[in-house]
Write a structure and sequence with these properties.
552 residues; alpha/beta; Rossmann fold; 3 domains; 6-stranded parallel beta sheet
Length: 552
């Protein structure tokens, strides 16, 4: 039977193994919705295009396959751009399909017309428009290949509505791309020989391309060589944090002792990470202009090697293959026990809770979660001052259990939690969110209820945009402007959506509230009444203000 473009597109997605897409419906891609009607692909109907794009991005992180979202033209695409930015900075494979005006109206500034190649070209790896329905399989297959090649990232395909409804002649669907990887054993041997010349080595692992097997291989490599390993920003599940060689993560509020150790290292083996702004504390720990450390840089994207840092040795391969090859090698014969042991001790000291003000202490909540959640539980977060408690006090045990944006996008945690609960309905999913962060995407509570996702959201409610307020108090003490929030009753709001709601005013009440939330089998919100003065450092805002005033 002849198929219109919408059905051709959906059947090509099926051929590529897509099981779930996220969408906010629009009249510009009605033919795709028609194609999905009889498809085995699940269509998760979202409430905002930003939430849909973030769910697709989170799904890609969990599966390693491109996440897929459909949004309508103009405002829909603009709303979805937040998720594209996350995918680009996090190196996540994703394909965003955007409805487009009829081809004959191009250039007239028709209703919701956007030139997507011009508007989104710098935000994605590739932006294109499909003008011939017969070429849909070609464009879709190329989009998936581009999204996953080298350094992964997002791709945008614009779909004119009249192209989607057109019925072309016979078309040939494209099979998935099959890659054959070479044996990297020889390169790994050379890299280890290079590392063996160090007196103060440090291995830094991050970026895309990871797996449970890679996490185990990294652990074997670290144990065999006795070398300390630091993980990139929001890649804390790449190695079991209980491993004796784990030295901590290079995040926004990183352990000062680890920062000093990065600077003191004489050789850095950087695997997968771009070694960017966050990991280098604004390029001060590893200075591209005058680096003190020798550098071996491993990355899947050839364009990333030498882009910022000029390495002494560059290896163009994905992190999984390289670490797998390293894990097969015997010990190099160097004894770094004292150096590695000190790094581990510094991490363990840093992970000890520092008391914050108030009857509900976020450090205690996070430590309770770390000690009581199943090792397979997935923990998500967006951005805000609250996230620093998670980075510092939660110990990740397995890969595939952390979903957080390296782009620092607020609002990400909850859509990511919904996507995780749909992808892994048998696993506990917990979202850590600030009151400001949660309100950016909490409308997806309706999506969670509709599709049976049941994450537990823990809202750090301090009545303000905490990170901005912290910087404000340090930079302009006593001059509060634009950071206070008037919040709803989050527990009541969850119940209004058909979920479960709790409020916690004392530490002692949290465990029981959490158990009730999980037992409800519904998407749940636990509203933590935090002291507005609390800061992630354990300091208070008033103390930060006083310190700033004392400095003049």
């Amino acid at each position: 039977m002849a198929m219109h473009g919408g059905r051709i597109l959906v059947e090509q997605l099926e051929r590529l193994g897509v099981r779930r897409v996220f969408s906010v419906p629009g009249e510009s891609f009605l033919a795709v919705l028609d194609g999905l009607h009889d498809s085995a692909i699940a269509n998760i109907v979202c409430r905002h295009e930003g939430g849909a794009a973030m769910m697709a991005e989170a799904t890609a992180k969990l599966t390693g396959q491109p996440g897929v979202a459909f949004v309508t033209r103009g405002p829909g695409a603009a709303n979805a751009s937040a998720g594209l930015h996350v995918a680009m900075q996090d190196s996540t494979p994703m394909v965003l399909f955007v409805g487009q005006i009829a081809r004959g109206d191009t250039g007239r500034e028709a209703f919701q017309e956007v030139d997507y190649r011009a508007a989104f070209g710098g935000l994605v790896k590739w932006a294109a428009q499909v003008d011939d329905a017969a070429r849909l399989p070609e464009f879709v297959a190329r989009a998936f290949a581009t999204a996953t090649a080298g350094r992964p990232g997002p791709v945008l395909l614009a779909l004119p509505e009249d192209m989607l409804s057109a019925v072309p002649g016979p078309v040939t669907l494209r099979p998935p791309l099959v890659e054959m990887g070479p044996d990297w054993s020889g390169v790994a041997e050379d890299a280890l020989a290079w590392l063996a010349e160090a007196d103060r080595p440090l291995v830094i692992v991050g970026g895309p391309h990871w797996s449970p097997q890679a996490a185990q291989a990294l652990g074997r490599f670290a144990s065999a060589q006795g070398v300390p390993v630091a993980l990139g920003f929001r890649r804390q599940d790449y190695l079991d944090n209980r491993h004796p060689c784990y030295a901590g993560d290079l995040n926004v509020g990183m352990n000062p002792a680890l920062a000093a150790r990065v600077k003191a290292a004489d050789r850095l083996m950087v695997i997968g990470s771009r070694l960017g702004d966050i990991e280098t504390r604004g390029y001060t720990l590893v200075d591209p202009a005058g680096r003190a450390q020798r550098l071996l840089h491993v990355h899947a994207g050839p364009e990333e090697l030498g882009r910022v840092h000029t390495p002494d040795l560059a290896v163009n391969v994905d992190a999984v293959r390289f670490v797998t090859a390293l894990a097969r090698l015997p010990g190099c014969g160097r004894d770094w026990a004292a150096w590695t042991g000190a790094a581990r001790a510094e991490y363990e000291a840093w992970a000890q809770p520092v008391e914050s003000p108030g009857a509900v202490k976020l450090e205690n909540v996070v430590r309770w979660l770390s000690e009581h959640l199943p090792e397979t539980a997935i923990v998500t977060n967006g951005a805000g001052n609250y996230a620093a408690w998670g980075h510092r006090y939660f110990a990740w045990k397995r890969f595939g259990t952390q979903l957080a944006p390296t782009s620092g996008s607020m609002g990400y945690g909850f859509p990511a939690a919904v996507a995780a609960a749909l992808e892994h309905p048998d696993r506990q999913v917990v979202c850590l969110a600030g009151d400001g962060c949660f309100q950016m995407t909490l409308t997806e509570m309706s999506t969670a209820v509709q599709h049976g996702a049941a994450p537990v959201v823990i809202v750090a409610n301090n009545g303000r945009y905490g990170t901005i307020r912290m910087h404000q108090e340090k930079t302009y003490p006593g001059r509060v402007s634009g950071t206070d929030l008037v919040n709803p009753d989050f527990a009541a709001l969850a119940r209004a959506y058909g979920g479960h709601g709790e409020r916690v005013d004392r530490d002692a009440d949290f465990a029981d509230a959490f158990e009730r939330a999980v037992s409800s089998g519904l998407p749940a919100v636990i509203d933590l009444a935090l002291d507005p003065e609390a800061l992630s450092t354990g300091q208070s805002l008033s103390a930060a203000r006083a310190e700033a005033l004392a400095r003049g």
